Amino acid sequence: MILADSDETGNMSVAEVEARITNKTTAIMVTHLWGTPADIDALLALANRHGLALLEDASHAHGATVHGQKVGTFGHTAAFSMNGPKPLSAGEGGFVLTDDDDVYHRVLLHGHYNKRCRNEIPATSPMHPYAVTGMGLKFRIHPLAASIALDQLGSLDDYLNGRENVARYLCNQLGELPGIAVPRTPDGVRPAWYGLPLTYVPEELGGLPVKRFHEALLAEGLKEVDQPGSICPLSRFPLFRDPAPVFPHYPHRKRVAYREGQFPVAEQIWQHTLKLPVWHREEDLPLVDRYIDGLRKVIEHHTELLG
Length: 307
Ligand SMILES: Cc1ncc(COP(=O)(O)O)c(C=O)c1O
What we know:
CATH topology: Aspartate Aminotransferase, domain 1
Bound molecules: pyridoxal-5'-phosphate
Number of helices: 10
Structural class: alpha+beta
Strand content: 5-15%
Number of strands: 10
Radius of gyration: 22 Å
Strand order of the largest sheet: 1-2-5-6
Distance between the termini: 43 Å
Number of domains: 1
CATH architecture: Alpha-Beta Complex
CATH class: Alpha Beta
CATH superfamily: Aspartate Aminotransferase, domain 1
């Protein structure tokens, strides 16, 4: 797997992807970070131009749209997580969208050995002989979790409308403040607002380090302001630098020595991101106001935190 840098939105940079395509490339995999769709038109055009599959990780972006079309339906196949706080949550679990029969059958073999595989993989498919055992694994979502998600699906549009209102309100109120920049929504895009990533701009607050700023927000009781840890440049993870210990048969049994500063945009964005949750209910508005007031207070008093 070859990594590419982000653009200024935090999503994958199309130019960076293009620069890394070689004759070994088979697919482009894109995540719609924090629920704001990546530049899907350009990525799709790029994938088509090079005869590559476009795979979407829409785990943050259930129901998000580009020109009215839902993310997860642009590429060849899409995966959605439904764990914990995701826009559509099952507690744990996820799903895959594809219109490719072969991918569908392979997904069944991962999740649903025996009955569903025997019923749904046609006898003519080369996958059919594996129906009883699948891949030897059972990544099936728990039926109760699936039913929780199915129940919520009918309310997803309401949740998204609520989140959109709260996100707009937060952006309007916070957009004027020094020290933080609110995200820009590209034209024609409707995010799912899994989170509201604020970009911290220390130069506007006398160089106050982000850590100190974050601690002050927490001290104000804004416990859900998060400096994302695991959602970071993937080059930081041993899984991508040195996968061999966990995948002994990994074809390239070598470490990937990412250069310091190889993904400068992703690093810069990650190190300056403070993420807010985006609530969706009317009743949440007083809490939203508490967060706005808390941010305003820390920003107004930032000089007291310097030094
Ligand atoms: C973008 C993205 N993709 C995939 C996953 C993995 O999801 P799961 O834990 O449901 O396997 C996550 C987890 O939160 C995620 O944020």
